[in-house]
Design goal:
- The protein has 487 residues and is of the alpha+beta class.
- It has 2 domains: 229 residues, Beta-Lactamase (2-Layer Sandwich); 237 residues, PPM-type phosphatase domain (Phosphatase 2c, domain 1), CATH 3.60.40.10.
- It has 12 helices and 16 strands.
- The longest helix has 37 residues.
- The radius of gyration is 32 Å and the shape is elongated.
């Protein structure tokens, strides 16, 4: 195993030997892209043939043309990297471009976890079982671990033949034979400011080593990739933290109530694309009844777009908390609950609006009293099919000077399931909101009996069978579904 211990953030450069395959020459020391100078021009003699004087000039031009080809190749791969969107696409591009520059066929990449160890491996040309096998290499033998080290981090790691290299450890030699890995070449991705960010190993199918020029191209590429990767890792960390906080605004579990089985599904849209935030809740009330609600908060003034999503998520948490309080105070009157919520929204969130449905459930008597505010009508799934629970037409909360709508009362049969959902799920199921609602109702009615009797399986079934048309807003709307089955 050959390694270099220079700074990983600033790898040294080498110049390829003339005639080496794969590259035409190094990138660090370039001749001026012009005509050869006087020292390079042949003088000739009166006795020498005139055509001999063109041979050195042709060699210089060939060399310059070859170096231009190397620079063009590097430029093309860095352009691909710049066009990558998101962390996963960036990592895949680094693997694929590095393999192309080095002439390798396979590779593995790991990012550095906050604690310092390697994260989940990402493969190029390696299946899941091969990646799993590489994870069994002991930490003290891990080449990727060495490339991720804070101290004594090598600039590169290189083995012409893993299967016979005593410097790589017995387990890796064994896997090299089993997986058909020949030579290997590894580089860290690091910056001066952030330290090691990731490590990559590329594999040849046979014993081989990259040329000096290929190594230099890979070094230059990783120097460019490292700061881009640092930004993607930071954006991914912020997104994960925000999504965790967002999920923390919703129930971590549903209450267990005699005579009622509850299940829910939430597939949140990314906050970088969404311009709203949905909620669901199941509220056990003091008299043994239950309040069920789903809704969506949107808006942040005129022209609100995806940039308003974090603010909408925070507003959703405040609205849901207020609704819980109103449900405890006057839960048996859904119209009053939504009316109080509308007053709060207009007073404290004047630039936002919300759609909502609130249902008051008496499990023992299977009685449902509900009201909606500009929201999709619930669906009642029974043994003979599925029907909409038609709430009166009403505006979303915060849209009119005074919100008002009558409530609806009905009695469910034993074994019926009430489905509450948000607009994102309906739009996933059809090209228009109306068509999506109809398709969702039909999918619930056509569900197999063993699925309909289990609210958790019914939720999963509806998310799986609803088609995703080209006009779907799945990428920009949350998908929310709450199911309550009367036992």
């Amino acid at each position: 195993m050959t390694e270099s211990h220079q700074s990983a953030a600033h790898p040294s450069t080498t110049t390829a030997e003339p005639g080496r395959p794969g590259c035409s020459g190094g990138l660090t020391v370039l001749d001026p892209p012009g005509l050869p100078g006087p020292a390079d021009a042949p003088t000739g003699t009166a006795d020498g043939p005139a055509d001999d004087r063109t041979a050195p000039s042709t060699a210089v031009q060939d060399r310059l043309a070859g170096r231009l080809s190397d620079i063009t190749s590097l430029h093309e791969h860095t352009e691909r990297l710049a066009r990558a969107r998101g962390l996963a696409a960036t990592l895949d591009t680094v693997l694929a471009s590095g393999a192309a520059l080095l002439g390798a066929r396979r590779g593995v990449l790991v990012t550095r976890l906050p604690g310092g160890g390697p994260g989940q491996p990402i493969g190029f040309g390696l299946d899941r079982s091969s990646l799993g096998a590489l994870e069994t290499v002991p930490p003290e033998q891990s080449l990727l671990g060495r490339l991720l080290g804070e101290r004594d981090r090598p600039e590169q790691l290189h083995s012409p033949d893993l299967a016979t290299d005593p410097g790589v450890g017995a387990r890796l030699r064994e896997l090299a034979v089993h997986l058909g890995l020949g030579g290997a070449y590894g580089l860290p991705l690091a910056t001066t400011e952030d330290g090691p960010l990731a490590a990559v190993l590329w594999f040849y199918d046979e014993p081989a080593e990259p040329t000096a020029c290929q190594r230099e191209l890979a070094h230059h590429y990783c120097e460019i990739a490292a700061p881009l990767l640092a930004k993607q890792l930071e954006a991914d960390r912020i997104l994960r933290t925000t999504e965790a906080l967002r999920r923390g605004l919703l129930p971590d579990r549903l209450p267990q109530t005699a005579g009622l089985r509850l299940a829910a599904r939430l597939v949140p849209a990314g906050l970088d694309r969404s311009c709203g935030s949905d909620w669901y809740d199941a509220i056990p009330l003091p008299d043994g009844t239950v309040g069920l609600t789903v809704g969506s908060v949107s808006g942040d003034g005129p022209g609100a777009g995806p940039g308003s999503a974090p603010g909408a998520a925070a507003a959703m948490g405040r609205v849901r908390a207020a609704l819980r309080a109103y449900a405890v105070l006057e839960g048996e009157d859904p119209v009053s609950v939504l009316g109080d919520l509308e007053l709060l929204l207009k007073t404290t969130e004047p630039t936002r609006s919300a759609t909502a449905v609130y249902a008051w459930i008496e499990p023992e008597e299977r009685r449902i009293t509900l009201a909606g505010a500009g929201h999709c009508p619930p669906v009642l799934v029974g043994r003979h099919g599925a029907e909409f629970v038609e709430t009166s037409l009403s505006a979303p909360l915060g849209m009119l000077a005074c919100w008002e709508a009558p409530g609806v009362e009905l009695t469910a049969e034993r074994g019926d399931t009430l489905l509450l959902y948000t607009e994102g799920l309906a739009r996933r199921c059809g090209p228009t909101l109306h068509a999506g609602q109809a398709n969702l109702r039909r999918a619930a009615a056509d569900a197999p009996r063993d699925v309909r009797i289990d609210p958790d399986r019914l939720c999963a079934h509806l998310l799986a069978v609803c088609p995703t048309p080209e006009t779907s807003s799945t990428d920009t709307d949350d998908l929310m579904l709450l199911a309550a089955r009367f036992e």
